[in-house]
Every structure is written in C-alpha cells, then in structure tokens.
Design goal:
The protein is mainly alpha-helical. It contains 13 helices and two strands. About 40% of the residues are buried.
Length: about 325
C-alpha cells in the first residue's frame, strides 16, 4: 500500500493511532505560564487515577504490610531481603501479566488507542527463546526485578546502619511530602542522561540493543533490559545515600522506576473498558523513541529533549530531522 503524498498524512499512516501533534509536554516549562494548564497537568498525576497514584498506593501497601522495620535490616539476612523481592515481584507481575492478558491475549479493547498496527513477534530469532513475550518476561524478571531489589536492599541496609540520611514525617513533614513530587523529576533527569549514554554505539551494541529489539512494545517490554543497562538504570537509587528520605520513598521510587514503564510501554494510549478510556497508559512520546531511536530519550514530565536538541514532537518534520540526525551520528 502506497503512503499519501502529504507529509503529515504519510506520518499518520504509519500508525494505527496517533494522538494530536505536536505532543503536549509539561506546561510548567512553557512561556508565558498558563496556571490553569499547569494545575490540570499536575492534577491528572496526583488527584486522578494514574500510574503515579498507583505507584504511591503500592508503596504504602508494601511499606505497611510487607516490609519489616528498618532496624531489622541492619544485617543482610535472607528473610527480609526476600520480603523486599516479593514486594517488587508480585505487583510487577500482576500489572504486566494482567495488562498483557487484556491487551494482547484477550484483545479486550481490540486495537483501540493502539499506537503500532503490528502484533508482538512470536517467531523471531533476534529474541531470546525466539519469542518477544518470553524474551521480555525473562529479562524483565530475571535481571530487572532482581537488580531493582538489590539496589533497594543496599539503600535499606545503609539507612539501617546510619550510612544514609533517614527522614521521619514528624521531623520535616513538608520535605517528606515534597519528596514524592521531586523523586519523579530526579528519575526523569537521571533517565535522560543514562539513556543518552546507552545510545553511545559501544554501549548500545553491548547492552541497550536488547531493549530496542522491541520496536513494537508491550507491557513486559517496560524493564526488559540487559543487566548492564539495569545496573546503570538503578544507580538512580544512589540519591537516597545523599538526600534524607524514608523507606516509603524508596519503595515509591522503585515503582516509579519499574512499574510505570509497564504501562508506558503497553503500546496503547489508554486502558479502555466498554469503549471508554479508564486510565492513561502508553506515552506516544516514548513510542516514537522505539520507532525512530535517536530522539525522546527522556520523559514528557521534563523538557530535557527539547532543551538538549533530541525532541520528536510527533510531526513529519520531526521525523525528517531525527532521521537526518541519526544519519549524521552514524557516519561520523
């Protein structure tokens, strides 16, 4: 089938679903400031059902129902370390597994709000076990959840032994609450620069190429990465060795880092029930990265890509610019 002559129509024809472009980014960083848009943006994150509020709920459940007291973490013992692992493993597999069942296996919403028109690869030698889903599940669980848990165990042990600054709500309630807002911003900043590093050709070939096997992403693609990439990805937790925080923040941080990507890599913009959008999930901004590679290394929450010249706003012009930049990068 030939593509249309009009550049924008041609770009739109590459997708099953393309949201309005140019893609909206956080209005906090737009000039002149528009208070209403800013309040609606942050309200959608914190006062509506979203992946951010899900991560917050999971953190509270894990802290009050699964994690032992911090004093019990002074020694590296299997009992409490397994509890941290289970606090990560169970909700992660439930979220990814249920989403995969609904979106991919049952096709509960067919292709409504699905970005890429293609299905997951079932027989492809580039994937471990020759299957995209099995490949993603293996690296997601065996490497991702394992190294995520080990990073948190290191932070908890350091907190328990006085090597990391602790924080209790009564000591500074304003900072305690503010940290829940600031951690996603720190995660976005860290992710942008680690991600750009991973696109350095030697590191890309050694590690990041595994994640980029997923041109057409699915829920299990979220943290399906090479162990080298996971080691870099979870250096994010080092912030807790410097900035006063609480185990509740560490759990929230972990879910933001690892459970949010399950939804953002779902391949669908929204979870639909009875043809009505119930939850915002996939991010076209990052879907463009998986399609065109050398763009959108960061997140829509912060304008790192716009500031550092790697922004793809979803338009045909941006696709041409990204392809030109990619050609220049690989012909130097």
């Amino acid at each position: 089938m030939s593509l249309p002559d009009d550049p924008e129509a041609r770009e739109a024809a590459r997708w099953n679903h393309r949201p309005p472009v140019p893609i909206a980014q956080n209005p906090l960083f737009q000039w002149p400031p528009r208070i209403g848009k800013i309040l609606r943006w942050y309200g959608a994150y914190w006062f509506e059902v979203s992946t951010t509020t899900l991560c917050l709920v999971l953190a509270f459940v894990a802290y009050f129902m699964i994690l032992p007291p911090l004093e019990a973490m002074q020694r590296l013992e299997a009992g409490w370390m397994i509890r941290v692992w289970l606090a990560n493993l169970v909700p992660q597999c439930l979220c990814a597994g249920l989403l995969h069942y609904w979106l991919i296996m049952r096709k509960g919403q067919n292709d409504q709000r699905k970005f890429d028109p293609r299905d997951q690869n079932r027989s492809n030698g580039s994937f471990t076990f020759g299957n995209q889903v099995w490949d993603n599940m293996f690296w997601h669980i065996a490497s991702g959840i394992t190294l995520w848990t080990l990073a948190q165990i290191g932070v908890f042990w350091a907190m328990a032994n006085g090597f990391a600054p602790g924080l209790l709500f009564p000591d500074n309630p304003v900072w305690f609450v503010a940290l829940f807002v600031l951690l996603p911003i720190w995660s976005s900043f860290h992710f942008y620069w680690v991600h750009r590093l991973l696109h350095w050709p030697p590191l890309y070939r050694a590690a990041h190429a595994l994640h980029h096997r997923n041109v057409n992403v699915g829920p299990w693609s979220g943290i399906s990465m090479h162990p080298i990439e996971h080691l870099l990805f979870y250096t994010n937790f080092l912030i807790h060795l410097v900035v006063p925080s609480h185990p509740l923040h560490v759990m929230f941080h972990g879910y933001v880092q690892s459970t949010h990507p399950v939804f953002s890599h779902s391949g669908f913009e929204n979870l639909m029930v009875k043809d009505q959008p119930q939850l915002k999930m996939g991010v076209f901004f990052h879907q463009l990265h998986h399609r065109y590679f050398e763009c959108n290394y960061g997140t829509v929450e912060m304008p790192w890509d716009r500031w550092f010249g790697s922004y793809h706003d979803g338009t045909a012009r941006a696709t041409d610019e990204t392809r030109a930049r990619k050609t220049q990068m690989y012909t130097r």
